[in-house]
Amino acid sequence: MQQKLSINHLCLLLLLITPLLAEATPTTVSLADMIEQLSPSVVIVKGETVTQRFEPGRLIVTHNWQLGSGFIIESNGYILTCYHIIDGIRDIKVILKDGTEYDARIVKANKQADLCLLKIKAHNLPSLKIGDPAIVRAGDFVITIGNPIPKQMNVAPKSLSNSVTTGIISSVCRVNQDNLKLFQLNLPVNFGNSGGPLFNRQGQVIGVVNSKIQGRM
Predict the structure, then answer these.
(1) Active site residue 84
(2) Number of domains making up the chain
(3) Which one of 97, 106, 130, 195 is CB 3.0 to 4.6 Å from 69, fit for a cystine?
(4) Phi, psi of 164, deg, nearest 5
(5) Known active-site residue 114
(6) Contact 75/126 with Cβ under 8 angstroms?
(7) What is the pTM of this model?
(8) Which is the catalytic residue, given 41, 69, 114, 161?
(9) Which of the residues 41, 69, 161, 194 is marked catalytic?
(10) Cα–Cα distance between 92 and 103 in angstroms, integer?
């Protein structure tokens, strides 16, 4: 009798608690509106690499495209990306989300920091807001928008453009061989994501995605 009474009490308790839990559980908020505002500021950065090799009686010249991501930081055409994307390439191009393609020139490059500032001749572009990376903590929610095109894939540059990935900061205490502070993410990124923005929950840029060091200690 005592066991039956306990079960009845438990069932009654569950009936009372379930509606309260439903009210207390936060609903999943879609990021669609924020992504729609941010994605026009994310661009494709591409350029041509030329390699030469000599074989008996002939010179072999190979032309390849190198692709990555970047983002607009000033509405008058200033774009930030990773240095390793444009290293060794010529005729740098920037492709906006709407497909417009511009010639780009290097304004400033820092090989050690793996950053490069590009300039295109354009105005009234949608630019991104910069947040404070100093207040980022492990466990913070983050978003990336980029062009995840692996080097070995023979695909059109825009076929995977503006792909969105979400995750968290795994650690804020990673340091590379040049003593640069790095965020470790739990996000899957590859070569094409390099140079793209890392956003906080407010849609502010708190870092630049760099897949070059992925898997390295």
Answers:
(1) yes
(2) 2
(3) 195
(4) -110, 135
(5) yes
(6) yes
(7) 0.76
(8) 114
(9) 194
(10) 6
